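Table S7 (text form). Paired inputs.
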Amino acid sequence: MSASAQPGIPAKPTVPALPGRRRHGRAFVAVPLLLGIAYGLYAAFLTSNNGASNTRIMLDSFVGGAVVAVLSFLIGAAQTRLPRERRAAAYGGLFGIVMGYLLSLSGETWLKAGFLGLILGLSMGLIVFYVRYTHET
């Protein structure tokens, strides 16, 4: 006997998914927005520690935070349509670029920042691929 057929428990109505209609909660927008805000604040902190002007600090924080928020939102919106390899590459690429840029803001050389961003991006891509490969339904 299924759970919906038990006496006293009403069956949950099932609504078929309509094309073009998305079912996302508040987290769909809130998570990328909070990631962008946190990234922008941390970028401002790193830029201000290097003695940059206020204009440079504001530019780095707003542009960096907006780029992270928009790219996170786009990857989140497209992730269900992407195969696991491309999804892993998208998350790994975004993570590697973001972390490499933050390292370059901290005063390290571009070569070191790029190399560490590449290593971190590849690591994140492998992790996302592993999780999607082992937990995909």
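Next pair, protein 2 of 2.
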Amino acid sequence: MSKLQDHSLNFNFNLGILRVADELKTLTGETIFIGVLNDDSVLATHIIPGSFPTRTHYEKGEKLPVIKTAVGRYILAFQSPEIQEQNRVLR
């Protein structure tokens, strides 16, 4: 059994990601946007506001066009050519 499948590690992946994201926000002052691919959209799972006066106006649970967001393009970069092509056509 791989360590990723070993539930005895007692590691909450979600909390680990949020801890790192919060540290990144502290170091950069930037807003941190975490999302997942959902068909042709990115579903905002977490938004950690930065410390700069300009803000994004996204809400947790909001869907954004995958091809129109930085996080969407990043996610697409690691997808299969088929998924990349499907989303290229949607522009």
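The first helix runs from residue 13 to 28.
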